[in-house]
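Bit of a strange request maybe. I'm writing a small parser for structure token strings and I need a real example to test against, not something I typed by hand. Could someone generate the tokens for this chain?
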Amino acid sequence: LGVLRGPGVLRRVRKLVDAAVCALLGGLLVGVLILLWAFLAFSGETLVAQVSTRRLSQTEFELTYTPSGTDRGRTMRLRGDQWAVSGGLVKWHPWLTAMGWASYHKPMRLSGQFSSLEEQRRRPPTVEGIAEPGVDRFWEAVYWADPVLPFVEAAYGSSAYAYVEPAAVQAIYVTPSGYLIKRK
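Reply from user aminoacidic:
Good idea to test on real output. This should exercise your parser:
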């Protein structure tokens, strides 16, 4: 109200309106940035590895697993018409995810499987470990302590599978809720 007293009232009102508009635009921009940050935190995908396959026979294939950030792949022989990646995942409480904490994950194994249930029952799956050591002690500790940890929403195993496609490179991603496989 002190703005409205004295000479130059219109100039002061105009400055007040300009300041209010700038504050409103600044607040709107901050709000949009917070929403964008939250969207990326809850829907982001992180590349874990790339996979290529080569058929050896009707029931066997060779899979090359190349972790992201490396040029060196590991090749293994598996049985089936599909391959799967699985591992442990720790999903943090949403307020930690909103602050930028990505879900903890560790891919543990790759396996071959058959899409036909009858074929799968006849032939046991082939499994190869991709993590050293073969057990993720951190994930196990969080899994068993999960009921009393307020900052953990869930600790669980996650798996994704895809068909063997010799002509395609497939990419494994981790999202805040599990593994995802896409063709490149």
